[in-house]
Design brief:
Blueprint lengths: L2 E5 L2 H4 L18 H4 L2 H6 L1 H14 L7 H13 L3 E5 L5 H4 L5 E3 L2 E8 L5 E3 L18 E5 L9 H10 L2 E5 L11 H7 L3 E6 L10 E4 L2 H19 L1
Parallel strand pairs: 1-2, 1-7, 2-3, 7-8, 8-9
Antiparallel strand pairs: 4-5, 4-6
The chain binds adenosine-5-diphosphoribose.
Adenosine-5-diphosphoribose (APR) binds next to α1.
Length: 233
């Protein structure tokens, strides 16, 4: 059985990573759009670098939760039949044990050199404009996809969506495209569709929608699927 899982900020909420559109809709006092665009970076480079430096540093203070760990267990069961796509730029899936994670919006713990195009794992700060380890240019930016930029690996994702048996969306509000359109794409290809989220997402075209905490819903669903697969084996 081929499964594509899409995760969003909701899966990391119980780990202490703030969501984008929760509570007052603000993000450390900024609207996401005001710090997550190429235009914002051009207008105030220091503000944007400081913002992402703080978020990168905060990863040291959070841990994966039961939902991340359950998806790592699912990878053990499904192997290459699972594609885990995340909109999250944190590294909690990897620290939860997942080996293959497609970060369609990039990663906080990576820097991208706009001079030589090299991407480098990055744990420190970028505000101080350090040199690129590959070319020496002082042209590093967070390796994250901003509004108006093309998410990574879209061809791989679309192929997987179109050929999967089941598409599962976890902890995402379904307002940001292209990810918000994945459910329709998967359904058009004949896949079953399932949503696991605190509330019904904006794009509620899922055949089944379960509301609750990711740390409860995801382990329960992984348990059910594993039992079904083992019964059919
Ligand atoms: N368990 C399950 N779902 C949760 C939980 C939880 N503990 N906490 C919150 N949620 C749900 C919320 O109800 C909401 O529907 O997670 C969703 C989070 O939505 P957003 O904050 O909009 O995050 P996301 O959908 O990942 O945002 C998409 O927007 O700003 C961009 O690039 C950024 O990747 C991000 C994209």
């Amino acid at each position: 059985m081929k499964v594509v899982v899409l995760t969003g900020a909701g899966i990391s909420a119980e780990s202490g990573v703030p969501t984008f559109r929760g509570e007052d809709g603000l993000w450390e006092g900024h609207r996401p759009e005001d710090v997550a665009t190429p235009e914002a970076f051009d207008a105030d480079r220091a503000l944007v670098q400081r913002f992402y430096d703080a978020r990168r540093a905060s990863l040291a203070r959070v841990q994966p939760n039961a939902a991340h760990r359950a998806l790592a267990e699912l990878e053990q069961v499904l192997g290459d039949d699972l594609l885990l796509v995340t909109q999250n730029i944190d590294d909690l899936h990897e620290r939860g044990g997942s080996k293959r994670v497609l970060h369609m919006h990039g990663e906080l713990r990576a820097a991208w050199c706009t001079a030589c195009d090299q991407r480098t794992p990055w744990l420190g700060t970028l505000l101080d404009e350090p040199p690129c380890p590959a070319c020496g240019a002082h042209a590093l930016r967070p390796d994250v996809v901003w509004f108006g930029e093309m998410p990574y690996e879209m061809d791989t994702i679309h192929l997987a969506l179109f050929s999967c048996d089941l598409f599962v969306s976890i902890g995402t509000s379904g307002v940001v495209y292209p990810a918000a359109g994945f459910v329709d794409y998967a359904a058009a290809g004949g896949a079953d569709t399932l949503e696991l989220n605190l509330e019904r997402a904006a794009n509620s075209d899922f055949r089944v929608s379960r509301q609750g905490l990711a740390s409860e819903l995801v382990p329960a669903w992984v348990g059910e699927l594993t039992a079904t697969l083992q019964a059919g084996a």
